[in-house]
Amino acid sequence: MRGSGVAPGSRLGSAAYRLLMAAALARLAGRSDHPSRALATALRDTARGRIPPEERVWIDRIEAHRRGLASGAVADAPGTRADTRAHAERRDEAARACTWMSLPPVLGRLVIRLVRELEPRSCLELGTGFGISTAYQAAALDLNGTGALISLDVGDITKLAQPGLERLGLGGRVELVPGLIEETLASACERAAPIDFALLDADHTEEGTVGAFDAIAPGLSGGAIVVCDDVNWTDDMRRAWRTIAARGRVSATVTLRRLGIAIVAGPA
User: Fold this and answer.
1) In whole angstroms, what is the distance from residue 213 CA to residue 207 CA?
2) Across the 268 residues of the chain, what is the mean pLDDT of every consecutive 10-residue run?
3) For residue 3, is it left (φ>0), alpha (ψ between -120 and 50) or beta?
4) Count of alpha carbons within 13 Å of 58, Cβ hemisphere only?
5) In sequence order, which residues have a C-beta less than 8 Å from that of residue 169 and are 6 or more positions away?
6) Whole-prediction pTM
7) Which of 53, 118, 150, 157 is 20 to 30 Å from 144 by CA-CA measure?
8) Domains of the chain by residue range
């Protein structure tokens, strides 16, 4: 998440999100395609608290890592040190902000369930942030035994996320791409295509969010799922989500206050 303040909906409690998930199932009623079934199962299981034991193990590990970031107990990987002042400042920022800037635990549980059910071969994330949502996706891929994730963000942020992913044993599932996303996205899309799952959590403006979706759209597989974070952040973001939902290849959408989830059909 970029910007200041707290996104509307980011402080919703777990119970409120679970009610939203249960209500969202009506949007998928009667749809039998694989991504719709995967999303419906993920929503239903998370709403009911039915998380498989092997996923709970990963959830506990990732949330312990989040708590370590929040307390300042987690810094750099063993044998390394902050190599720039900016990196140290990013690490301190994590201690202050990772508890509310990253996806909350209940949405992390939804992401791991969704990636498990969808079984994507290739995932793309714009906005690594503190690596929490990155870890949830990578853990699901690890449990699936297949698939890889490319995650893009500026260099100081990827330096912050990398040690945590390595500590969790997920470094092998994730390629972190440092640099300005507008400069690295085209190459990443080319390497990731066909993209089965994408998480957009970088430029929180109308132009930037719609532009990111349109940039990755040619590389999306038929049946891909795209998750957009903070779609209720500002009027700009609400307009962005309405624009994305109206795109021709988007066959169904679900909105969970801060999250927008789109199912993308094949080319016309």
Assistant:
1) 10
2) 43 89 96 97 98 98 90 51 57 57 91 98 96 97 98 89 94 95 96 97 94 97 97 95 97 96 86
3) left
4) 27
5) 142
6) 0.88
7) 157
8) 14-264
